[in-house]
Design a protein that fits this description.
binds pyridoxal-5'-phosphate; Aspartate Aminotransferase, domain 1; 7-stranded mixed beta sheet; Aspartate Aminotransferase, domain 2
């Protein structure tokens, strides 16, 4: 956008240097707006939908957004104090305590003692703000964060355009497996120019739908340890666990944070998770930031106190505090996981069936022009497209086949493909989606 009207009006000159530079490039928002208007099959934005009769005590077959009936019922019984009062800057004690226990519950199979080494989580309005706050705290504008080239687009907006720092990409896959070598060389190279390395991992991954298995997770850990040794610089590793638990094969169902938490004093692990997908509460806006502070860092109580002071300073100056009514509801919900886990498992299994149906359909109609990345989790699948521009293909798909998808075209990073959101499709729509994509590629070849 050239901001011609702002410039003509004189308002542009009033903007700060930052205000002049920030902008939102065309992307997911535009494609999903177009899909809402033009598409019969909408596979763009990351929501999950289905029939209430399939997963809750309801006879309704009207397709709607997946949600948990326990949360919906909860808000009928709230007291004014729970709704209208201010919340402390980093969250109400009950949500912080219960989320800490929830993390302990999620990670207990791998590390039953994890609760004793993690901090009280900080409440922030969504994972997006959590990532922003962490980058603001740990990444200077002269430094680079290390991320795979296939990543959620908002990381670029936060790290590059908002914080003003850089991104060092590595290729996520190598020979159909996680690219350990790429991760290591990105860390070693980046650490040459800064005092530490900053890695951001996201599994289940957006946009590929990839989650590592246990062996891969362990190998990622040993890669990080080797990289730190070779670079001689410490490392902070942040996990964006937005889709934690949404895994449809035998791969890790818990966050890799559990494996990263105790890798030694040179590796500080931070977990960011939240309710958007985990509790299917998109509009709720609540995320949590949690550090792992094993004993080798020193006195955990003292470290927590000082870290909290830093984060109170930053959060107070950014968003002041997060919505209380949501925190009250989430505190109540996650303190009794039995009330929602069964229903959530049903939803995960329905989404898993959609993922498997898409996988089968892609295999049945395999096309040398279309190479899907390995997907086993989350809401998305990624199709690498060989010779046709992904943006042209997405445009053609909408116009001719009424199919909405998100194109990813980053020439510098060798990415040209489509992100499909299988979670928002019905199983019946999947053959039409795959046929449409195959036909559209043939049209444009
Ligand atoms: C990887 C990833 N992280 C974070 C988010 C957003 O999380 P929140 O809604 O909690 O800000 C998304 C959702 O689009 C995502 O895909």
């Amino acid at each position: 956008m050239e901001f011609k009207a702002l410039k003509k009006s004189g308002i542009f000159n009033l903007l700060s240097t930052f205000g002049k530079e920030i902008f939102q490039p065309p992307g997911i928002v535009e494609w999903s707006e177009r899909a809402k208007k033009e598409a019969a099959i909408n596979s763009t934005v990351g929501v999950a939908t289905g029939k209430p009769s399939e997963y809750m005590d309801s006879s309704s077959d009207k397709v709607g957004i997946f949600h948990l009936s326990a949360i919906k019922e909860l808000y009928n019984n709230f007291k004014p104090e729970q709704i209208f009062a201010y919340a402390p800057v980093l969250g109400i004690p009950s949500v912080r305590n219960s989320w800490k226990k929830w993390i302990g519950f999620k990670l207990k199979d791998h590390n039953p003692a994890i609760e004793s080494i993690i901090t009280q989580p900080y409440a922030i309005p969504g994972i997006t703000v959590g990532i922003y706050v962490l980058c603001r705290m740990f990444l200077s504008p002269t430094e680079k964060a290390i991320l795979p080239e296939k990543r959620w687009g908002n990381y670029d907006a936060i790290i590059k355009r908002n914080i003003g720092a850089g991104i060092q990409s590595f290729t996520l896959f190598r020979e159909n497996r996680f690219n350990y070598e790429g991760l290591k060389s990105a860390i070693v190279e980046t650490a040459k120019n800064q005092d530490k390395a900053f890695v951001l991992l996201n599994f289940p991954n957006n946009p590929t739908g990839y989650s590592p298995d246990r062996e891969t997770a362990e190998k990622i850990c040993s890669t990080l340890k080797e990289s730190v040794k070779e670079s001689g610089k410490p490392l902070i590793v942040v996990t964006d666990d937005a889709y934690e638990g949404f895994v449809y094969d035998d791969s890790l169902k818990h966050s890799i944070f559990s494996h990263l938490a105790e890798l030694g004093k040179d590796i500080l692990a931070v977990k960011v998770d939240g309710i958007t997908k985990e509790l299917l509460f998109w509009g709720g806006r609540l995320g949590m930031i949690t550090f792992a502070i094993p004993p080798y860092f020193g006195d955990k109580g003292e470290i927590e106190l000082e870290l909290e002071n830093k984060f109170v300073g930053l959060v107070r100056a950014t968003i002041s505090n997060s919505t209380k009514i949501i925190q009250e509801g989430v505190a109540s919900i996650v303190s009794e996981p039995d009330k929602f886990l069964q229903e959530r498992e049903r939803i995960i299994s329905i989404i898993g069936k959609k993922a498997n149906a898409l996988k089968e359909e892609l295999e049945k109609n395999s096309n040398p022009e279309i190479l899907p990345d390995h997907f086993n989790s989350g809401f998305f699948a990624f199709l690498n497209i060989k010779d046709v521009s992904a943006e042209k293909l997405a445009d053609h798909l909408l116009k001719k086949y009424k199919i909405g998808v998100i194109p990813f075209e980053k020439k510098k990073e060798n990415i040209n493909g489509l992100r499909l959101t299988f979670s928002s499709l019905s199983v019946e729509e999947i053959p039409r989606l795959v046929a449409g994509i195959n036909n559209a590629v043939a049209d444009l070849k």
